[in-house]
Amino acid sequence: MSVAEHLRWPVSVVRWTFVLLNLASGAGVLLYLWLWAMTPLRGTTEADGPVRRRVAVPLLLAWTAAAIALFSGAAVLAFGAVGTLAVTVPLTVALALGAVGWSRFVEPPNGAAAVGGALAVRISVGAGLVLLGFLLAVTSLSPGAGWLWLLVILVSLGVAAVAVGPEVLILRRQLSTQRIDRVRTEQRAEIAAHLHDSVLQTLALIQNRAGASSEVARIARAQERELRDWLYAGSSAPERDVASEIRDTAAALELDHSVRIDVVVVGMAQEPGQGAAELVAAAREAMLNAARHAGGDVSVYVEATSAAIDVFVRDRGPGFDVNEVPDDRLGVRESILGRMKRAGGTATVRRGAGGVGTEVHLHLDLAVIPAAGPGGSAGSPSSAPDPTGGAA
Q1: Does the structure show a pLDDT above 50 at 372?
Q2: Which residue range is the domain that position 14 belongs to?
Q3: What count of other Cβ atoms lies within 10 Å of the Cβ of residue 379?
Q4: How far apart are CA 314 and CA 352, in angstroms?
Q5: 310: CATH
Q6: Who is most buried in 34, 71, 199, 341, counting CB within 10 A?
């Protein structure tokens, strides 16, 4: 059934084919064993990953080459069957080359297949060396046999090709890739230097002249951010963490509101897990409230360690006291305080110095994320210094 499905033949045709082949000196059995070893397993597709087979083909070819080399050498030494070398030498070299070629160009270069491929290369080289040793022994016992010397040379070249050829090809490919990457990096650096001296400075000048809250400054700042991300992000995909999520959130809010949000990050943030995702959502709500009700510039300070993450959101608006908010207004209580409490963190909302502005402090202890911490309590950690240099 599996063979018929793989060949896309009717089952009856496959069965009668094997019956007829078995009449030819058992060729059907050999063909069936070959198909059994080479046919991919059921359900293996490109989307599922690399093709898996019942038998490691490189190892099968390599062990076969080694067995032929050993038996042919033993036959020559024991019975003097030198004529068999004309068949066994080309067959051993062909099997060894097939094992190396399959492991390098057919099997995926990772996981167990890579380990099996490396083992197949070693076995193939060993088989070639064993056969070469037998040929040298026979040549030394049979002076004047010039064709044996020719076989020795051919086997030596085959062993060298098996051992060195694939590595040379891989090294050449790696050097070519490195050279292309280096040229791309140099070109990107030249473009970045040129644009920094011209376009980026022009966009910065437009922002300073137009004012932080104007539509022109908002568009110029968005274009500057996109250009900097393209120039300095590199060709590889950036790693996602809490800091990058907060930066992207601030950039999106700047496009929707006429404010400038400065994000300063200290330390290495963690990957956005469940608790960290709630922290990012609470920080977004705090930045959104500042953009809607305070206006002007908003400062966001992120301090991340291996034990905790702290986020401070400050604005220069009129400020408010969370205790004075009516009970039917649940925006701050649920979207910030309640969300952080459910995530196992804390959140505090307080007026700035002199009653000017508002500061929202979000704290998430990574060691005890499942635990529910108090929200909005006075005993929360003290605020960090203002990264902008002014009072909150």
Answers
A1: no
A2: 1-53
A3: 7
A4: 8
A5: 3.30.565.10
A6: 341
